[in-house]
Amino acid sequence: xxxxxxxxxxxxxxxxxxxxxxxxxxxxxxxxxxxxxxxxxxxxxxxxxxxxxxxxxxxxxxxxxxxxxxxxxxxxxxxxxxxxxxxxxxxxxxxxxxxxxxxxxxxxxxxxxxxxxxxxxxxxxxxxxxxxxxxxxxxxxxxxxxxxxxxxxxxxxxxxxxxxxxxxxxxxxxxxxxxxxxxxxxxxxxxxxxxxxxxxxxxxxxxxxxxxxxxxxxxxxxxxxxxxxxxxxxxxxxxxxxxxxxxxxxxxxxxxxxxxxxxxxxxxxxxxxxxxxxxxxxxxxxxxxxxxxxxxxxxxxxxxxxxxxxxxxxxxxxxxxxxxxxxxxxxxxxxxxxxxxxxxxxxxxxxxxxxxxxxxxxxxxxxxxxxxxxxxxxxxxxxxxxxxxxxxxxxxxxxxxxxxxxxxxxxxxxxxxxxxxxxxxxxxxxxxxxxxxxxxxxxxxxxxxxxxxxxxxxxxxxxxxxxxxxxxxxxxxxxxxxxxxxxxxxxxxxxxxxxxxxxxxxxxxxxxxxxxxxxxxxxxxxxxxxxxxxxxxxxxxxxxxxxxxxxxxxxxxxxxxxxxxxxxxxxxxxxxxxxxxxxxxxxxxxxxxxxxxxxxxxxxxxxxxxxxxxxxxxxxxxxxxxxxxxxxxxxxxxxxxxxxxxxxxxxxxxxxxxxxxxxxxxxxxxxxxxxxxxxxxxxxxxxxxxxxxxxxxxxxxxxxxxxxxxxxxxxxxxxxxxxxxxxxxxxxxxxxxxxxxxxxxxxxxxxxxxxxxxxxxxxxxxxxxxxxxxxxxxxxxx
Length: 782
Prior knowledge:
Blueprint: E1 14-20, H1 24-35, E2 40-44, H2 58-63, E3 65-69, E4 76-78, E5 85-89, E6 93-98, H3 127-130, H4 136-148, H5 161-172, E7 177-178, E8 189-190, E9 196-197, H6 222-228, E10 232-235, E11 237-245, E12 248-255, E13 268-277, H7 280-293, E14 312-317, E15 346-349, E16 359-364, H8 368-371, H9 374-385, E17 387-388, H10 393-409, H11 414-417, E18 420-425, E19 433-437, E20 440-444, H12 452-466, E21 471-474, E22 486-488, E23 511-513, E24 521-527, H13 542-560, E25 582-594, H14 601-604, E26 613-623, H15 626-631, E27 636-644, E28 653-664, E29 673-682, E30 688-697, H16 705-709, E31 711-718, E32 726-733, H17 736-744, E33 747-749, H18 754-781
Parallel strand pairs: 1-2, 1-13, 2-10, 3-5, 6-22, 13-24
Antiparallel strand pairs: 3-4, 5-6, 7-15, 8-9, 11-12, 12-13, 14-18, 14-21, 15-16, 16-18, 17-21, 19-20, 23-24, 25-26, 25-32, 25-33, 26-27, 27-28, 28-29, 29-30, 30-31, 31-32
């Protein structure tokens, strides 16, 4: 499959539509609006990870975790901000979501079921949506099912032991085991986005990312569809806030993994005619809460009515019969019994007299990337909170032997191999509140773990385990010792849709209310993800989120007179070859300039002058194709970033177009070289400026290498080019400590392995330092 994301250096300063996030809501919005002829830009905080790049081992999995602990739970942030698996530890309820191009679809189980029809009779949904259940919402379900292609685990595929054991539990509960539709490709073929997918390998590793390419994540359908229709996709971009800018919207963002954070760089920004927030329940609420602090008027209900969707996780541990519920990880699929997709069977108990007492119980699989951690983790949890459901000395001995077997031979033997993963979706009161604390979204929901529904769920799961003669292990933190903390994998709400601002954050179309009361909305600002869902669904929510997003796109198109073409695409051309190897680093320089444009740069930039004013930049320097850069006589690299100049604006200016000409002899003194910086700048008020600078590399008498390479002579022009009137001159410098930090930001792009990475660093370093050698040593020696 083709890479979808573009280099950050190609990010423009304005787009008609910006979609923030790339999960179900974001991917669908990007696809449908691109098909409607709109120029769409997708900004995703995570990385683009393709099948084969997902974690397979514990070390790889741990590297993909990011943990955010609220005050009282450690008050810390651990891990990469672009890690695949994001955990919010809040004390009342912990939340897990996905971070990457494709959002949580990358790590969910893909169960694609519709909710109980009674869910949409709830008056918490706006009347317009309730009246449209059999209209555009039904169309939304249909369109989503066509793209996601959910199917039950096929009867003609290898039998799964975990379904056999789960069937015994179903009988014990008086229910029936059914195979739910899951977003997994079981037979190789081409999907509606023109992407060819292989059949499922039955490895069971869905929850840490599919390395086969058979899982129908948003990365495999809606996003390539958007890309094929012209959408520009940018990853590792963290959107911070959205504020109105006249008839447009200003989107503040931070590029990630570029090293800008090491220089305390200000946020960059771009503008859009329309912005669709689809960063997931936690991410969208965080952006809107931060935007409210910057002055965006929104409903006072922002952050309210968070629901955990009645999620419960537990284990039937060390059962009397094997389960084969541990994923293959890095092991050869051919040598292991098939696990199947993460979830292949459910016990549907939603047909209760009262909707909110219903639930669905699902079996699952432990990902192979985490499997080696399970013998100790499950044995410890069983000792701490487990309840053995069978008795007898012989049974006790057998259980201890199976535990030892798992410790000695690994998780695909013994107690862990005899463990059934159990998951429940049900209903809750939806009384959680998301708040912004220490610039991070936090969830508050005292006593969430004491909901009576949870007691009913626990009783069912205990009986399901007892049917198989094992130890019932609840989620360890859901105990009195830990304050009954819940684990939520399907967060909903916080930006719920409603009739008016007094009751919710967006209307039935996803348009954000523009105040604390009434029906008025912000034109051009939308939300489209799980945060708009105003109640628990009692089922895996991906299909409902997708249907609501499809409906919102149809309504947006209708409102603006656009036409969405839903025709499927033919198979895409073969994947392009890997991109060229490049390099990237970030640097900062700072100094002064003045309006004395006739004076020499050092004199004009003297900080002791009465008219001296500070200027600073933080720039990311990128050579997307190192070979091409080194071949070109000007050795051009792309510059992106921000310039802080109080004389121009109280807010940072963004670089709309920038180039660094590295070690060029053009314009240099004979025998010397130059480094030229050419920056087109734009202020938030829309004024254009041009900053040009150069480092004069020439061996004058004395030791001047450091001074030459760290002094930039700059000229500032009022206008968008060097022909515009010059309004200031001066010079910038960087310190040794800043230079050391700059070196730590140097990265090689698109290297296939460590050897190619080292070769690229050696070539780039050899070119740079070789040019200095030629200028400052060889010339003198000659």
